[in-house]
């Protein structure tokens, strides 16, 4: 009997701890996040969790898909079963969304695609909000052209996660500019999975295959750049302002800009993770029966290290860094 009572108490406690308190008339949002691969992602998750609060009238059901497309689709299916009011997806990969988006549409649940795009027909979801990653890639390429001013570039690229629209967009945008420069050569382009460990691993292998042959490394996010720097430090390769290798990074997180201000990253192209307020605005408009745009682009800037002036980017200062929220 004592054992049974203890079990029942444990069960009640587990239920109390695991099920988030939900207010009856709150709007319920199912949020399928990519994972926790980068500092950018942590800032993006934090932004959602501090924007969609119970006090603000929202119950956010958060699922971290750990960079797994199948797990993310299952999360969306569980949101459909729970009959949430809205589904927000930051897609791990661009392809393969048609069936589950159709299921959400059949259930009458509006879907907001955020951060990264999907290749599914736009009629299958309500709206997209995120940055223009192809433009981010182009900005990086245009900055390199401005900086090198006709000099040769032997480029190594550390791409993001395979199949993610952020990877595809940045690669397409940068390659578009590279094609206009016969004096540039992209020696190799491999995935570092948007992680520091991935960036380090790819750079270590590049250092073996291309020792002394490259003068530019393009890292498709800040964490990959930190890993690449660790690998170059260990190999005695200098980088940044005054170094042998130019480093371009994406994201412009606080740590990324700290390293840009220190001259370790030459150019850092922003990808703004503060997107939750825009998503909240869209949901509020749908709730009020107002029109919403099909696409909302979150604007980005670019930043260069002290000593570099650019028509495309701001030169980093301590003041700029101090004002950085993420
Ligand atoms: O989709 C945005 C990208 O995903 C960011 O550049 C990267 O840091 C993140 O993991």
Kindly provide the radius of gyration, computed on alpha-carbon positions and rounded to a whole number of angstroms.
22 Å
Total number of domains: 2
Structural class: alpha/beta
Overall shape: it is: elongated
- Low-pLDDT segments: 1-19
Q: What's the total helix number?
A: 11
The distinct bound ligands, ions and cofactors come out as: alpha-L-arabinofuranose
CATH topology call of the largest domain: Rossmann fold
The CATH class designation of the largest domain is Alpha Beta
Task: State the helicity in percent bands.
Answer: 40-55%
Quick rundown:
The protein is an alpha/beta fold and 326 residues long.
Detailed description of the structure:
The protein has two domains: 25-131 and 273-297, 3-Layer(aba) Sandwich (Rossmann fold), CATH 3.40.50; 133-271 and 302-322, Response regulator (Rossmann fold), CATH 3.40.50. It contains eleven helices and 13 strands. The strands form two sheets. The chain has a seven-stranded mixed beta sheet with strand order 7-6-8-9-10-12-13, sandwiched between helices. A six-stranded parallel beta sheet has the order 2-1-3-4-5-11, with helices on both faces. With 326 residues, the protein is α/β, with parallel strands linked by helices. The protein has helices at residues 2-18, 39-51, 69-81, 98-106, 133-148, 165-179, 196-209, 222-235, 254-261, 276-287, 318-322, and strands at residues 27-33, 58-64, 86-89, 111-115, 127-130, 153-159, 184-191, 216-219, 246-251, 267-270, 295-297, 302-304, 314-315. The longest helix is centred in the N-terminal third of the chain and has 17 residues, at 2-18. 42% of the residues lie in helices and 20% in strands. It is elongated, with a radius of gyration of 22 Å. Residues 37-38, 40-41, 115-116, 166, 194, 221, 250-251, 271 line the site of alpha-L-arabinofuranose.
